[in-house]
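Sequence in, structure out. First:
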Amino acid sequence: MLTSRPSGGTHGDLAGVATSRSRHPTHEENPMNTRRIAAPLFSLALVAGLTCAGNVSSADATAPLPAKKAKAPKNVIVLIGDGMGYKQIAAASLYEKGRSYKQAVGQPGAVREVTGRPVTLQEKFPVQADMATYSVKGSYDPLRAWRDFECVKADPTGSAAAGTAMSTGVKTYNAGLGVDADGKPVENPSERAIALGKAAGSISSVQFSHATPASYVVHNKSRNDHMGIAKQEVASEMTVMMGAGNPHFDDNGKKLKAPKYGYIS
């Protein structure tokens, strides 16, 4: 556009100087050479931008880019560190690395949290969430716990209530397993997966009829009904059920004088 414009206009003259001379004028011949040559180049860039914009409709210019379709996960794996809370993670980090990600400092009524660098793998996850797992009648007051460490022993959360809260999102009483506060069954993710035609399994470092692994499988009003829980698990549609325990050995792997058949996995 600049080279085809007739001479006589300011931009036409400048374009002619830039395209028709065999040599560039010296600074004495054209003290504004650099500035004048830059002007048409800027105009060219501006026109080119307008030309490109003219080929796009106003609707296209404002339309959002198509969202990328989220890739569905192939598997959903829930890892539970039974009894593992923030302070257990901090203690392990201090033991292993000599530092922790977050640490509470101060005195009761003036406690603050100091944040450092992530230490453990889960502290580096891009998506994180928190949940309260205490029983339906329980509670947790951090200021009270900070003042009196004995208060947390008054009504500790049982594994059945915590496991049910994690697996169903419903709070229950301490012995309740896969049931609500009234003893009514609530759906767990294993049942949802099986209903969708997928496989589900539960693997534990303790007996499979224990509260935490069983909370993802059964519905029982009492976690102490080990035989009833085991029967439900065996009769379920779970693809995999694995747990620890051998009637001939204790929890430390030492052979017993007489086998104990209280738990079988």
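Second:
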Amino acid sequence: MIGAVLAGGKSRRFGEDKLLFEINGKPLVLHTIERLEGCSSIKKVIIVASPQNREAMEEFGYEVVVDDLTIGPISGVYSALSLGDAFVVGGDMPSLIPEFIDYIIKQFNNSGKIACVPRWSNGYLEPLHAAYSKNFRDILEERIEKGLYKLGDAISSAKNVCYIKIEDLPLGWRESFFNVNKKEDLHRIMQ
């Protein structure tokens, strides 16, 4: 399965391109990629970039897919799925837990569903820590054409989704969902 790192955001709350911000001597996005590469189920890592940051992302030596739509995570996932089934994460998720990702991919492969998404008991989804079939791209395309850009709503509208109940999983795996939004968040990973 492809590991797709979404790297097309604008980093408004961070104040600068957070994915290029160096933490312990390397850019944030590389911390995320290294964790993803630690997954036995991931055969190839790609970066989904915006047209504006394509060149910066190409510097890391990974295949870069450009999200020309840049309408949010929905178009990033849409772009990633052009290459096949993918496990999608945000580029600002440096605490990914490879065992958890492998678990989700195994559930996805065994389920035969169009997507496998972690879900909290209150219904909140973790769509940027999920496995998607390339066939989910058709659903995304239809929603994008209608101007419906919320990835969570696209997932909820699909009838063939595997949901993983987060509360039933090891407590430590929840750290995998952590993402950096503001500079204050960096203390969690700089220790």
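Remark: The first strand starts at residue 2 and ends at 7.
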